[in-house]
Design goal:
Layout lengths: L27 H48 L8 H10 L4 E6 L2 E7 L8 E4 L5 H13 L5 E7 L6 E7 L1 H53 L16 H54 L5 H22 L3 H4 L8 E4 H11 L9 E6 L4 E4 L1 H20 L10 E9 L2 E8 L28 H11 L3 E4 L7 E7 L5 H10 L1
Parallel strand pairs: 3-4, 7-9
Antiparallel strand pairs: 1-2, 1-5, 4-5, 6-8, 9-10, 10-12, 11-12
């Protein structure tokens, strides 16, 4: 028999591609600051527009109110005659060049001084809208020179309205001063608001995001180090959820990497010893073939079993890396009696001559299972060996019998097998990962692959394996359904028959 080396696992690490260094640009904090300042300035501008319009309208109303007061004084003079010097003083006190009122169908000029040749603008306050106030205020601020404007507003007394002719320059200068004050206050508010918003967002969001980013970068550099796993905070918001999820993801990924490392180490170790082991098994097989020719009845009885065991050992050696390298071979299913398989499992596990562990087989008479005999043998052997090791690990003074029990029955098109023992049972902390590789081996030298391989083989049959709760010791139930029947094939076979 030619010796064949096992190939190492195919999941070889790919060479790491160097990442392009991203140029250092403005960080999240700087972007946040640059974004906050213009937003606050935009808010200040939006507040300034109605403020300057309101200031302009109020100044115009003040002129109208002052003109109404002056009109009462001028109208109260005897026969409407007011000395020119007094009229100039009154007009100067209200910053006006002329004051007139309308009574009925007539307009009456109460006082005037240095009237301009023409009126440049008319402003009617009686029906002014907000938009007109905004456009009028900015129009006056953008003009130059000292133009004459006429302000029309409501009048007190019996007059219909009052008109005031005044200079535009003093009003524009007052608007400039008001705008300067607003801009200074807005800048102060913008800086303070931007600083407060920046600090609040920096401590609430930017610093946690930097912590998450640093954890991601550090974990990428060394994903197998537990020191690179982020420690989540006690926050209850989205940042806290992200921290906890990142921590769980890093722990799961680190565990997966450790499993892959163990698989790679297992494949490397087995590939080193596979050549010599196969040669030794081949030599043993040649000796067993010669032993089969001995006419001794006892030799003739045990020689076929020895040959079969060696053949299985060689096959197992060939497929040792199949779990870490590829999927198991598809099962060669056929309807087989289960009792010979169970008997061979007992003899292979060394329990036929072990009086310390009782063996109980309660299998329905004539029970057949639609399965691959070799793979089913591997599954049962793994479970029986686990049960025997659990019983051996018990203290010498343990109360109760040590027993392994295999039961089998059929429910319709489903075969059900159970392997149970009276050992200490499965620890609670290992039940969540019971059928995962490298998770359940609690004895020295154990690989933690037995239950994982058994579960994979049973799933390949379309069945299920699970731990039965509430039993003494540990009980594993195997469910293997029969393959679906092709009615057309059966009909053709009957027709040919």
């Amino acid at each position: 028999m030619a010796a064949t080396d096992l190939q190492p696992p195919q999941d070889l690490p790919t060479p790491e591609v160097p990442r392009a260094r991203v140029p250092q640009r403005l960080g999240l904090s700087g972007k946040l600051l640059l974004l906050t300042i213009p937003l606050v300035m935009i808010a200040a501008i939006l507040l300034y527009v109605p403020a300057i319009a309101n200031f302009w309208v109020n100044r115009l109303n003040d002129r109208v109110a002052a003109a109404n007061t002056a009109a009462l004084v001028l109208d109260a003079a005897p026969s409407g005659m007011v000395p020119e010097s007094l009229a100039r003083q009154i007009l100067k006190s209200i910053n006006a060049r002329a004051v007139a009122i309308k009574l009925g169908q007539q307009r009456r000029l109460l006082a005037s001084a240095d009237l301009p040749a023409a009126i440049d603008h008319d402003i009617d306050l009686r029906d002014m809208t907000a938009w007109q106030a905004i456009t009028g205020s900015f129009q006056m601020m953008l003009e130059t020179g000292n133009q004459a404007i006429r302000i029309v507003g409501p009048s007190v007394g019996s007059a219909q309205f009052i008109e005031v002719v005044t200079d535009e320059l003093p009003l524009r200068q007052a608007m400039y001063r008001f705008s300067r004050n607003v801009v200074v206050v807005a800048l102060i508010i913008a800086v303070l608001t931007a600083g407060l918003v920046y600090l609040a967002l920096h401590y609430l969001f930017v610093r946690p995001m930097r912590r998450l980013t640093a954890s991601l970068v550090g974990f990428h550099e060394n994903p197998e180090s537990s020191a690179r796993i982020i420690v989540p905070s006690q926050r209850g918001d989205e940042i806290g959820v992200a921290e906890r999820e990142l921590s769980d993801m890093q722990r799961d990924l680190m565990s997966m990497l450790h499993q892959k490392s163990r698989l790679a180490a297992l494949g490397l170790a087995v590939s080193k010893i596979n050549h010599d082991l196969r040669n030794l098994l081949a030599s043993a097989q040649l000796l067993s073939d010669q032993l089969a020719t001995v006419p001794d009845p006892r030799v003739q009885r045990f020689a076929p079993k020895l040959v079969r065991s060696l053949e299985r050992a060689i096959a197992f050696c060939q497929s040792t890396l199949s779990y870490g390298r590829a999927q198991e071979a598809a099962p060669d299913r056929r309807l087989i009696p289960i009792e010979p398989v169970v008997l061979e499992v007992r003899e292979t596990a060394g329990l036929a001559s072990d009086a310390s562990i009782a063996w109980v087989a309660a299998i329905e008479r004539g029970l057949s299972v639609d399965a691959d005999p070799d793979q089913l043998f591997r599954v049962l052997l793994n479970l029986v060996r686990n049960a025997a090791q659990a019983l051996e690990s018990q203290a010498s003074g343990a109360v109760g019998p040590q027993q392994i029990r295999i039961t089998g029955k059929r429910e319709g098109a489903v075969a059900i097998l159970e392997v149970s023992d009276t050992g200490p049972g499965v620890p609670e902390k290992t039940r969540q990962h019971l059928f995962e590789a490298f998770q359940t081996s609690g004895r020295p030298g154990g690989s933690g692959l037995g239950l994982a391989i058994a579960a994979e083989l049973i799933r390949a049959h379309g069945g299920d394996i699970h731990l039965v709760e509430g039993t003494i010791g540990a009980t594993f139930r195997i469910v293997i359904p029969d393959r679906p029947v092709e009615l057309l094939t059966i009909r053709n076979e009957r027709a040919r028959a």
